From TrEMBL:
<dbReference type="InterPro" id="IPR035906">
    <property type="entry name" value="MetI-like_sf"/>
</dbReference>
<feature type="transmembrane region" description="Helical">
    <location>
        <begin position="172"/>
        <end position="192"/>
    </location>
</feature>
<dbReference type="InterPro" id="IPR000515">
    <property type="entry name" value="MetI-like"/>
</dbReference>
<feature type="transmembrane region" description="Helical">
    <location>
        <begin position="85"/>
        <end position="109"/>
    </location>
</feature>
<dbReference type="Pfam" id="PF00528">
    <property type="entry name" value="BPD_transp_1"/>
</dbReference>
<dbReference type="GO" id="GO:0006865">
    <property type="term" value="P:amino acid transport"/>
</dbReference>
<keyword id="KW-1133">Transmembrane helix</keyword>
<keyword id="KW-0472">Membrane</keyword>
<feature type="transmembrane region" description="Helical">
    <location>
        <begin position="326"/>
        <end position="347"/>
    </location>
</feature>
<keyword id="KW-0812">Transmembrane</keyword>
<feature type="transmembrane region" description="Helical">
    <location>
        <begin position="19"/>
        <end position="37"/>
    </location>
</feature>
<feature type="domain" description="ABC transmembrane type-1">
    <location>
        <begin position="81"/>
        <end position="371"/>
    </location>
</feature>
<keyword id="KW-0813">Transport</keyword>
<comment type="similarity">
    <text>Belongs to the binding-protein-dependent transport system permease family. HisMQ subfamily.</text>
</comment>
<feature type="transmembrane region" description="Helical">
    <location>
        <begin position="130"/>
        <end position="152"/>
    </location>
</feature>
<feature type="transmembrane region" description="Helical">
    <location>
        <begin position="213"/>
        <end position="232"/>
    </location>
</feature>
<feature type="transmembrane region" description="Helical">
    <location>
        <begin position="244"/>
        <end position="262"/>
    </location>
</feature>
């Protein structure tokens, strides 16, 4: 028997043409950097980032942690980062939910649902997101009631200024509840992993839903029996505004809704394309076995669609994070907003642009890397 020939050796040396191309690009950007530095020196400017430790001297519309005008520029940049991440997280959830519902409606048997889904996609996909933002903002300011006439549902109050909701008090009981929730989540993840391996090995596994519900309910019940229940700060109308609770400003809600609607239309098309890529024979076979439409969607359509749509969804999520920068149009203190204010105060456009670009790059690269890992794991699972 003739043994197979060894594979050809891999070429480790960089080809000359690639070396010349990289050297040319490096020289080009080096010349640009030297020219910028020379112009700054001629203008009497010394490049550097020492100004970030100076007093900011301006307020922000909202912050997720303590901040005042006496804080440093570094702290206000952290405020902008956390506001951007919070806005992006809420917008991602809204866009994904809207995209999933509209994507499923676009392939529904009902012609009315398909027409409504198509109208939604065509409307929000072909209108600039900034225009959607301004229309929703003007409509919210003029259409929602004032604070004293706020629309209230229990302890939740909605006005043309904000929505105010109850907030757990930051005490020892809160952290114990958070710890119990994290431990329950870890235990549920371990049980789900064990259950999945048992199903792969034997083809059968016990139902985990009742056990999962009991695991999540047990810590709050135990803490309540130990006289350590959660304490809540409930908003109360005092004067011209509500006191207590947590506040989501009108600007935040309108921006999150805008990005959710706009990118929901894009995601709906991605999901529709992923569903239509599944062979129809599999769906027909599942129906022939007696599965209901809900079971077909949950067990056949969505798992395969997920493997198909993760790469294009990666692009949509990154675009959504970058599009949070339109928040500056309605005065929400995101990263772009605070960066612009810092530039106006310090006259350091180059340094702040580099800092802002680096932050956006790290956020988007982190999300892209995480979704690429998810995509790789799904493909590996499919290949087994």
């Amino acid at each position: 028997m003739i043994s197979p020939s060894p594979p050809p050796p891999q070429q480790r040396r960089l080809p000359l043409r690639d070396f010349v191309l990289l050297a040319t690009v490096l020289v080009f950007f080096t010349l640009i950097a030297l020219n910028v530095l020379d112009n700054m020196h001629r203008a009497g400017l010394t490049p550097g980032f020492a100004f970030l430790g100076q007093r900011a001297g301006f307020d922000v519309s909202e912050a997720l942690f303590s901040y005042s005008a006496d804080s440093t520029y570094v702290r206000v940049i952290l405020v902008g980062i956390t506001n951007t991440l919070f806005l992006a997280a809420v917008s991602l959830i809204l866009a994904t939910a809207a995209g999933l519902l509209v994507g499923l409606a676009s392939i529904a048997p009902s012609k009315a649902l398909r027409l409504l889904a198509q109208a939604y996609v065509e409307l929000f996909r072909n209108i600039p997101k900034l225009l959607i933002l301004l229309v929703l903002y003007v409509a919210a300011v003029g259409g929602l009631p004032q604070v004293r006439q706020a629309f209230s549902v229990g302890p939740v109050h909605l006005s043309n200024r904000s929505v105010v909701i109850p907030l757990p008090v930051n005490d020892m009981a809160l952290w114990l509840h958070i710890g119990g929730f994290l431990m329950s989540t870890l235990l549920v993840a371990l049980l789900a992993r064990r259950n999945r391996r048992l199903r792969e090995r034997t083809g059968n596994a016990p139902q985990l839903l009742p056990v999962m519900i009991a695991i999540y309910i047990l810590p709050p019940v135990v803490l309540a029996l130990l006289s350590m229940p959660l304490s809540w700060s409930v908003p109360v109308l005092s004067g011209f505004d509500f006191r207590g609770g947590a506040r989501l400003t009108l600007q935040f809600m309108v921006i999150a809704l805008t990005l959710g609607l706009y990118h929901g239309a894009q995601i709906a098309e991605v999901i529709r394309g992923g569903i239509e890529a599944i062979p129809k024979g599999q769906i027909e076979a599942a129906r022939a076995l007696g599965l209901s439409s809900l079971q077909v969607t949950r067990l056949i359509v969505l798992p395969q669609t997920l493997r198909i749509i993760v790469p294009p969804m990666n692009n949509q999520y990154v675009n959504l994070i970058k599009n949070t920068s339109i928040a500056i149009a309605v005065g929400y203190s995101d990263l772009m907003s605070v960066s612009g204010t810092i530039i106006n105060q310090t006259f350091r456009p180059l340094e702040m642009m580099l800092v802002t670009m680096a932050i956006y790059l790290l956020i988007c690269l982190g999300l892209t890397s995480a979704l690429n890992r998810v995509s790789d794991r799904l493909r590996m699972r499919e290949g087994r």
